[in-house]
Amino acid sequence: MDISRFTSKRSVLSGSAILIIFFLLATFPLYSPGYTVVLLISIFMYIIITVSWTMFSGPTGYISLAPAAFFGVGVYTSALLGFVLPLPAVIGIGGLVSFCLALLVGALTLRLRGIYFVMFTFGLVELLLHFILWWEVNITGTTGRVVPTVDNTTVYYLMVIIFAILMLTAYFIKHSKFGLALQSIGEYEEAAAHTGVNVTALKTVTFAISAFFMGAAGATMATRWTYIDPRIAFNPLLSFMPVLMAIFGGMGQLYGPIIGAAIFTYLEEFLITRFPYYYMLIFGIIMVVAILYMPDGLVGLLQKLWKRISGTKYADT
Amino acid sequence: MPILEGKGVTKYFGGLAAISNVDFHVDQGEIVGLIGPNGAGKTTLFNLISAALALNSGVIRFKGEKISGLKPYQICRTGVARTFQSVKVFPNMPVFGNVSLGSLFGTSTGMSSADAARKAMESLDFVGLSAVRAIPAKDLTLANQKRLEVARALATKPELLLLDELIAGLNPAETAQAMDLVTRIRDKGISIFMIEHVMKAIMSICDRIIVLHHGEKIAEGTPQKITSSKKVVEVYLGESVDAGS
């Protein structure tokens, strides 16, 4: 009984904290300099990719290196439709195209496990990159495209909206019976199947939902770049960053990947401007230290510290 | 009418017949034992029934309806639940989470989350694990992990339960408890098909026993008939019949 009162009090607290955060985010461009808004846009880009990556790969343990593919599909949708349709429609379509691609790819490849799945998803990025490159060189005759630009404040608000919808979706999935089933797939897929979970359908649909948000983020971000080509759109780094950011932040809690992505992006920005020559080196060292000493990520480390301070071993035994 | 029936069930691994032309049936409310030497194909037969493997020929029917060709989750939802020879509980999930997965996903009609939680609690109570429901499954003893697998299977509201070596690896006291659990499950009206090597256990609780050897059914009958069958003694039980103790 005590526990339930405690959790309801806590949910009221965290609920109001979330409201305050969103209020601050919504009013942010009104009183802050342009540079900070631009920085926040790239932070949101990484947060969206990382949270949606964690939505699928966190519980199931299927490490996908396809984010760059789904993001790139969104970018290209924006380039193709940007001059024809209003931006919200472009973003929705970008997400949907990624969703459909992920459904198709997921149905074909989610029977692969471990390293085979990792390699295939990364192959998808390269495949799309080179296919579009080939297409542009041989069929259309021009490489790259111009994307209609949109002002930073609009992009910022769109990213906040995508982020909000993503968090609601991730929260719902994590706390529904499907969240439990995704975790069971990660722990013992065979047992999950024999306990009545339609593992193939659940994996494929979750994979596709996570791809939707990556595509939507790509379609939005494309407007910031004015010119895109396949190498910008399908940048393989975007496949690895969410994995690193999720590990750095910790995947056990929903806010882990958010914190990881936010700190990582800020760190990247900070190191590039202060130590342009040693930036990659310092970055690498931080990553190695994080993996060695924080197996559960930053959030796991904080929880451990908190437990030590408050002296409780288990919250409820 | 038998609740589970297999006709001409055959499975090849490469050129090797793991199960060749086996007929079997389990009647409503019966406890049927499946015995045989290592490599006889017992677990393969369970994998065929639960659709972990696809059969090469033959047909398996559950309550008169063909179930061979369905997917594992569909088999589970029609009412055939199973446990595993090497325990497959979800290690980092709490005990309760393990079982509620069964009640949330294991039935064809689906349950509301309140009903599912109630059904999960009921299954945990039934196997005697409700006191440890909050701890991660990996922290349980082997005997309790096996009971947890049974509870998870029961939460899917099965009419037939496949038990793959429930008793192997348990000490005498735990063995007695497991045997008691099996008879209590049957008393709930759930038919049982069980693989077991512990002869004392299987002889005392089974109504009927099927013996496999090299993928073929070599004998079938009451425990008394099996222990006196010359062929079974030759290939499996050994000359002194009080094996298993």
Quick summary of this structure?
The complex is a heterodimer of chains A (about 325) and B (about 240). Chain A is mostly helical.
Keywords:
heterodimer, A: 317 residues, mainly alpha, two-stranded antiparallel ribbon, 13 helices, 1% strand, B: 245 residues, alpha/beta, Rossmann fold, six-stranded mixed β-sheet, 10 strands, globular
What does this structure look like?
The complex is a heterodimer of chains A (317) and B (245). Chain A has 317 residues and is an all-alpha fold. Chain A has a domain at 33-247. Helices cover 81% and strands 1% of the residues of chain A. Chain A has 13 helices and two strands. Chain A has a two-stranded antiparallel sheet. In chain A, helix 2 crosses helix 11 and helix 3 (67-81) packs antiparallel against helix 4. The longest helix of chain A has 30 residues, at 2-31. Chain A is globular and about 65 Å long. Chain B is of the alpha/beta class. Chain B has helices at 42-49, 72-78, 95-105, 113-127, 142-155, 172-187, 199-205, 223-228, 230-237, and strands at 2-13, 16-27, 31-35, 57-62, 65-66, 80-82, 160-164, 191-195, 208-213, 216-221. In chain B, the strands form two sheets. A six-stranded mixed beta sheet of chain B has the order 6-7-8-3-9-10, sandwiched between helices. In chain B, strands 2-1-4-5 form a four-stranded antiparallel beta sheet, covered by helices on one side. In chain B, strand 9 and strand 10 (216-221) form a beta hairpin. In chain B, helix 3 crosses helix 4 (113-127). The radius of gyration of chain B is 18 Å and the shape is globular. The chains are: A mainly alpha (317), B alpha/beta (245). Chain A binds chain B through residues 177, 180-181, 183-184, 187-188, 190-199, 316-317, and chain B through 50, 52, 71-73, 75-77, 81-82, 84, 88-93, 97, 100-102, 104-107, 113, 116, 134-135, 152-153, 156.
